[in-house]
Write a structure and sequence with these properties.
2 strands, 213 residues, elongated, 2 domains, Ferritin, mainly alpha, two-stranded antiparallel sheet
Length: 213
Amino acid sequence: MSPRFFPQPIVARANLTSDAPASSLNNDAPVYVSRFTRRFHLRSATSPRPPISRLAGAALASSAFVVPLAMSASSSPSPNHPRVFLWYQFLRKPWFKPPDWVIPLAWFGIEGALAAAAYRLLRTSPTPDRDRALSLLAWNVTMIGGWSRLFFKRRQLGTSTVAAAAMVASGVEYVRQANKVDAAAARAGIPFVAWVSFATVLTATIWSLNRRR
């Protein structure tokens, strides 16, 4: 076979992927690298990892709905759980507590916004900032279900207040980190921060009103 079908070697005086200064290189030992190998290494060093597919991103983003629902399924204050329902009905509550039907609607909208934010972040190229934002978002989604268990199932009003305040802090940090990657994904976290800030005040007030009961 003719030699022209093979990659032509070139002589490199230095390691092509090294940032070492020229003074530290051995000029007496040239490295023979084919043009194909050189092109492959340069492309591998500079090309970022691609984002995940749309289908995989949508499947993962849907966990913003699935995880809180699964974690709170056994502790929601509904007629399906009569003990939890009666305990919640007899709690003393402040005047500014929203009607019971408003709360699940609010969470539906908030979780929808978080799911949209997760999808946008998952569809961007992986970077440390993106990964930190996704980790914070996953933590917040998990804490939504965790708070429901603390408040309704374990009836730990004081711990629930602390958990709500922790969600405010992690929500603010999520918005800060996500804003480095995708401004729309960051804005989608603002309703979560606003609602859990209100929930912290509400939970603390309920705890105060029922502390001696």
